[in-house]
């Protein structure tokens, strides 16, 4: 965990029921802190990821379209958030389709300070579990707001919940199946 981040915020995020990650808004967006669930999801130990960019989770996947969407968000301070499916791999090489949400934690001075993210393996899930995750993430963001505010940080962006969980899960499962058939070919 990073000493630069307010302790109250870290204490709130670490035991979260959803996977969370916070990166620097500067440079190559190196990771500053993650929740315990992030490690459970990816299989990486804290030491292996903190200080590095999360793109290492993509290993060899091209992910052209989702990466372009993420870069667009990162390059445009007026865009409040982004949500996309992206192919990732756990440390042991198992692929999964990650539903990635990203928004900003902005310092009161107006300069973006941190990028906030949450991850969910939608390719091994079910529509009702995705809805539960969505609600949990929305609640995490709402409860984080006063804690961050105490530390002079504004939580930006209202979570755009997934309108059709069944379609999203189906799409992710198709992406995973295509990936697995490529790998076995
Ligand atoms: C806080 C944060 C968390 C991120 N989490 C993930 C992730 O879980 N999986 C992923 O594939 N990319 C993740 N990214 C996105 C990549 O780090 C990177 O921004 C993306 O691949 C687009 O940039 P690139 O084309 O230069 O790689 C995250 C980025 C940030 C800032």
According to DSSP, the number of beta strands is 6
Global mean pLDDT: 93
Count, helices: 6
Beta percentage is 15-25%
CATH homology superfamily: PAS domain
Question: Which regions have little confidence, pLDDT < 50, spanning 5+ residues?
Answer: none
Just name the CATH architecture. Answer: 2-Layer Sandwich
Helix and strand composition category: alpha+beta
Number of domains: 1
| Cα radius of gyration in angstroms | 16 Å
Give, in order, the helices and strands: HEEHHHEEEHEH
Envelope shape:
globular
Helix content: 40-55%
The largest β sheet comes out as: 6 strands, antiparallel
Describe the structure.
The protein is α+β, with helices and mostly antiparallel strands and 185 residues long. It has a single domain, classed as Beta-Lactamase (2-Layer Sandwich), CATH 3.30.450.20. Helices cover 40% and strands 23% of the residues. It has helices spanning 7-13, 36-42, 46-49, 64-75, 127-150, 165-184, and strands at 19-24, 31-34, 81-89, 95-107, 112-119, 153-155. Strands 1, 2, 3, 4, 5 and 6 form a 6-stranded antiparallel sheet that branches. Strand 3 (81-89) and strand 4 (95-107) form a beta hairpin. It is globular. The termini are far apart. Residues 21-23, 29, 53-55, 57-58, 67, 70-71, 74, 86, 88, 98, 100, 102, 115, 117, 119 line the site of flavin mononucleotide.
Write the layout of secondary structure elements.
Blueprint lengths: L6 H7 L5 E6 L6 E4 L1 H7 L3 H4 L14 H12 L5 E9 L5 E13 L4 E8 L7 H24 L2 E3 L9 H20 L1
Antiparallel strand pairs: 1-2, 1-5, 3-4, 4-5, 4-6
Bound molecules: flavin mononucleotide.
């Amino acid at each position: 965990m990073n000493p630069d981040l307010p302790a109250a915020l870290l204490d709130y995020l670490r035991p979260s029921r959803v996977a969370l990650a916070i990166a620097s808004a500067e440079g190559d967006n190196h990771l500053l802190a993650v929740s315990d669930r992030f490690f459970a999801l990816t299989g990486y130990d804290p030491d292996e990821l903190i200080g590095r960019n999360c793109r290492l989770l993509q290993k060899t996947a091209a992910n052209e379209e989702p990466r372009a969407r993420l870069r667009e968000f990162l390059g445009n301070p007026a865009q409040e958030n982004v949500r996309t499916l992206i192919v990732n791999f756990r440390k042991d090489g198992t692929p999964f389709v990650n539903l990635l949400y990203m928004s900003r934690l902005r310092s009161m001075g107006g300069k973006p300070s941190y990028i906030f993210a949450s991850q969910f393996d939608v390719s091994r899930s079910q529509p009702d579990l995705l809805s539960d995750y969505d609600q949990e993430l929305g609640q995490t963001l709402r409860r984080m707001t006063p804690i961050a505010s105490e530390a002079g940080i504004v939580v930006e962006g209202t979570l755009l919940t997934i309108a059709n969980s069944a379609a999203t899960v189906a799409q992710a499962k198709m992406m995973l199946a295509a990936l697995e058939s490529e790998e076995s070919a």
